[in-house]
Amino acid sequence: MKCAYSSNIGAKRKVNQDACLAATIENSGRKYYVFAVADGLGGHRSGEIASQMAVDYIKEKLSDVENYFDYDEMYHFVNAINHEIIDVSRNCEECLGMATTLTMCILDGSRLGVIHVGDSRAYRINKEGMEQLTKDHSLVQVLVDEGKITSVEASVHPQKNVITRALGTDDIVQPDLYDYQVTTEDVILICSDGLYNMVDEGAIREIVLTYSLEDATKELINLANHNGGNDNITVVLFNPKEEVTAND
């Protein structure tokens, strides 16, 4: 297993509200690799606290979950994070209304579970192409699904940053759980919208396939900033076949 990750404030923001995670979890004698990106909502106060709470909760509590590929168990786990964020928000005036996205990948051999709330994304990248593994919980995605706009129109829509699900906004959140098979030829990317809104998929794929994972994280962030850096930028890359490293 090889991994590299980095988070950057971007060119326009005063605070980095993103958080990310790469960790190894021991559970019932098995080793799992866990990766996550949480993007604190820019329009909400204390988004950086909400996103850090999400990744801290994963580090501290994920090993208590029995089956990472069971929807009911992961539903309850994600809602436990949601309740923690809401409880802090309601008891701290400075944190009132804080919220975050969460996209988490759990790797068990060749099996990849993806747990997802919001509009951060996970992708599979290989020589065959680039596949988005998650579906945005956003207003523009609803409009695309209804046939009212195209995906190209969605990418430039004035309300493209309006999301329909997040941790911290409602008492109950409905996460998506995806179950994939991956190979040693795949590179998995998890990123906040600060990357994919600034860099098109073709450029992302070319960089990931050209550079080492460590250098690719730097190149992706540099290009996002070069193209405007309108938001915080967080990139997690991992490949199932080599050793874990990281760059913060």
Automatic annotation (TrEMBL):
SMART domains: PP2C_SIG, PP2Cc. Coiled coil: none annotated. GO terms for molecular function: protein serine/threonine phosphatase activity. Residues 2-240 form the PPM-type phosphatase domain. It comes from the Bacteria. InterPro entries: PP2C, PPM-type-like_dom_sf, PPM-type_phosphatase-like_dom. NCBIfam families: Stp1_PP2C_phos. PANTHER family: PROTEIN PHOSPHATASE. This is Stp1/IreP family PP2C-type Ser/Thr phosphatase. It comes from Eubacterium maltosivorans.
